[in-house]
């Protein structure tokens, strides 16, 4: 997480930040609630760096106030920064939506199948009940008992 002014050039960065050291694999989850457009490239996001050096290898995912989402990276110390801009966040939303639909559609189909099956059974039971009542309502012939 960083706060304040971030100045990125091709091979060096300058910004104010809050950091935590880590080693090995790192799992970071962040949510950007809002970004105030103080300037055209005001941004909020997460950066992972090799070191605190201005030209360190790094990767940064952010949301800009005016330009959407982007991922910046410097693959090696002192190398030029590269950027991938676009709607990466929206793509993840689309994947999540597709996964949700993949689970919801079969569930709705199964629900409809069982509701229709239950209605059919209820109709069959109603028919059986009416037949049984008709049979029970018929007068029974009495045989004369002779002794």
Can you describe what's shown?
- The protein is α+β, with helices and mostly antiparallel strands and 147 residues long.
- It has two domains: 2-86, no CATH class; 87-137.
- The chain is built from one helix and six strands.
- The chain has one helix spanning 88-137; strands spanning 2-8, 13-17, 43-49, 58-64, 68-74, 82-86.
- The strands form two sheets. A four-stranded antiparallel β-sheet has the order 3-4-5-6, with no helix packed on it.
- It is rod-shaped, with a radius of gyration of 35 Å.
- Residues 1-5 have low confidence and may be disordered.
Topology summary:
Layout: E1 2-8, E2 13-17, E3 43-49, E4 58-64, E5 68-74, E6 82-86, H1 88-137
Antiparallel strand pairs: 1-2, 3-4, 4-5, 5-6
For this entry, give a set of tags.
34% helix; 26% strand; single chain; 147 residues; two-stranded antiparallel ribbon; disordered N terminus
Distance between the termini: 107 Å
Domain tally: 2
> DSSP helix count?
1
The helix fraction, in percent, is 25-40%
Order of helices and strands: EEEEEEH
Largest sheet: 4 strands, antiparallel
Question: Which stretches are low in confidence, meaning pLDDT under 50 for 5 or more residues running?
Answer: 1-5
**Biggest β-sheet: strands ordered side by side in the sheet:** 3-4-5-6
Outline: rod-shaped
What Rg is obtained from the alpha carbons, in whole angstroms?
A: 35 Å
Name the structural class.
Answer: alpha+beta
Extended strand count:
6
User: How much beta, percentage-wise?
Assistant: 25-35%
pLDDT averaged residue by residue: 77
């Amino acid at each position: 997480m960083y706060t304040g002014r971030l100045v990125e050039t091709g091979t060096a960065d300058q910004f104010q930040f809050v950091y935590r050291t880590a080693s090995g694999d790192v799992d970071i989850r962040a949510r950007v609630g809002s970004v105030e457009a103080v300037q055209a490239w005001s941004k909020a996001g997460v950066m992972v760096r090799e070191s605190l050096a201005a030209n360190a290898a790094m990767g940064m995912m952010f949301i800009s106030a005016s330009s959407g989402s982007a991922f910046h990276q410097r693959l090696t110390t002192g190398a030029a920064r590269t950027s991938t801009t676009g709607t990466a966040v929206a793509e993840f939303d689309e994947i999540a939506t597709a996964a949700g639909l993949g689970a919801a559609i079969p569930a709705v189909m199964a629900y409809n199948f069982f509701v229709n099956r239950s209605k059919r059974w209820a109709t069959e039971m109603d028919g059986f009940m009416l037949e049984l009542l008709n049979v029970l309502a018929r007068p029974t012939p009495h045989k004369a008992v002779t002794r």
